[in-house]
Structure formats: structure tokens, C-alpha cells
């Protein structure tokens, strides 16, 4: 829903509301259960870009809602909460080639889960300030440190995102420069 919309809940949506969704059957059942007549249109991606020209609201998958808010939208209801589960029958699991493929998929899924709530911090630091920066910098393991051609070091480390707003100023105070915060989609150990 657009952030400036008067609708505060699904009950506030008018009959005939235009809804864009990649999941039209699920969306249709959801609105029907609430007695709201909706004009549901199949979306082939980028649903958030369809408001207000093509749709009044969208149904989309989101983990945090951050991308929706960045597009000027807000969440007014949660249709369902889901989780990822891998299920295999015994015959498929007994096949070494299929089991290898399952293990590869599990590696990717677990890597995505491990990356949740984490970011990569990259920075430069002079030789004299390196130890002070390392004392401030939390690290999942040991930070990566590379010598720069012009002197000093490049340092990178995976840290908890919730700490980033206090960590960056502390690193700068310790002598770090050229600080970067980068999103991480997977961490595979």
C-alpha cells in the first residue's frame, strides 16, 4: 500500500480494489475470506513499481519490508508466514548423485540463513592505527587484512548489522577511513 494511503488495514480497502500479485490464487482466497471484492492481476515481478498506475496495492514476498518502504510503500497485513524446509524421499536420498545435489542446495540455503542480519565492513587504515581498529572491530572469525600498495592496510570483516550504526563511528574514531558497509546474501563456511 502506498505510504500516503488512508487505508490502515485490509478492511479499509474498497470493493474493486486493484491488486497486483505473483500469487493470484492465494491472493484471491485471502480477499474472498475477508469479503472484499478485488480485481487481482498477475504480476511478473517488480510489483512495487505498479502502484499507483496499474494497482492500488500489491501482494508480495518480503522478509523485512525494507525494499517496499524504499519504494514508498508500507505493509498493512501479513497474509502468511512461511519457512524453508527440505524434504526428500528415501529413494532419492539413497541415490549418491541426487544426495550430492541436495547437499549443494542445503549449502546455499544455510549460507543464506547465516547471512541474515549481517553485513560486510571494509575499511582502510594506516599502519599506526591498525591494532586500535582491530580492537574495535568484532569479527565472525578473523578479519581479512591486506597490505595497500600506498602503505597501510585494507581490512574487511563480517559483522552484525544491528551494531553498524555505532561501529562505523567507533572505527572512524580509531583511525579507519574509506569505510564501506555492504550487504551479504550468503555466508558459506
UniProtKB/TrEMBL annotation:
Histidine biosynthesis HisG C-terminal domain residues: 115-186
GO cellular component terms given for this protein: cytoplasm
GO molecular function, one term: magnesium ion binding
Gene3D superfamilies: 3.30.70.120, Periplasmic binding protein-like II
Cofactor: Mg(2+)
Coiled-coil segments on the chain, per record: none
Keyword vocabulary terms for this entry: Amino-acid biosynthesis, ATP-binding, Cytoplasm, Glycosyltransferase, Histidine biosynthesis, Magnesium, Metal-binding, Nucleotide-binding, Transferase
Segments crossing the lipid bilayer: none
Pfam families: HisG, HisG_C
Catalytic function, reaction form: 1-(5-phospho-beta-D-ribosyl)-ATP + diphosphate = 5-phospho-alpha-D-ribose 1-diphosphate + ATP
Pathway(s) the chain acts in: Amino-acid biosynthesis; L-histidine biosynthesis; L-histidine from 5-phospho-alpha-D-ribose 1-diphosphate: step 1/9
Locations listed in the record: Cytoplasm
Catalytic activity, EC: 2.4.2.17
Function recorded in the entry: Catalyzes the condensation of ATP and 5-phosphoribose 1-diphosphate to form N'-(5'-phosphoribosyl)-ATP (PR-ATP). Has a crucial role in the pathway because the rate of histidine biosynthesis seems to be controlled primarily by regulation of HisG enzymatic activity.
Homology family: Belongs to the ATP phosphoribosyltransferase family. Long subfamily.
Name this polypeptide is given: ATP phosphoribosyltransferase
Amino acid at each position: 500500500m502506498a505510504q500516503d494511503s488512508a487505508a490502515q488495514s485490509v478492511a479499509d480497502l474498497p470493493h474493486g480494489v486493484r491488486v497486483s500479485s505473483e500469487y493470484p490464487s492465494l491472493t484471491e482466497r485471502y480477499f474472498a475470506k475477508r469479503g472484499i471484492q478485488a480485481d487481482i492481476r498477475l504480476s511478473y515481478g517488480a510489483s512495487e513499481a505498479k502502484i499507483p498506475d496499474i494497482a492500488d496495492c500489491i501482494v508480495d514476498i518480503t522478509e523485512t519490508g525494507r525494499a517496499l518502504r524504499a519504494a514508498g510503500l508500507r505493509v498493512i497485513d501479513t497474509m502468511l508466514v512461511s519457512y524453508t524446509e527440505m524434504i526428500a524421499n528415501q529413494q532419492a536420498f539413497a541415490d549418491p548423485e541426487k544426495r550430492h545435489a541436495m547437499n549443494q542446495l542445503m549449502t546455499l540455503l544455510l549460507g543464506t540463513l547465516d547471512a541474515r542480519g549481517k553485513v560486510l565492513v571494509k575499511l582502510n587504515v594506516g599502519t599506526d592505527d591498525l591494532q586500535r581498529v582491530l580492537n574495535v572491530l568484532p569479527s565472525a572469525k578473523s578479519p581479512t587484512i591486506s597490505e595497500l600498495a600506498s602503505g597501510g592496510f585494507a581490512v574487511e570483516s563480517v559483522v552484525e548489522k544491528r551494531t553498524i550504526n555505532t561501529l562505523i563511528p567507533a572505527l572512524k574514531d580509531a583511525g579507519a577511513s574509506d569505510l564501506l558497509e555492504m550487504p551479504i546474501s550468503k555466508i558459506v563456511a
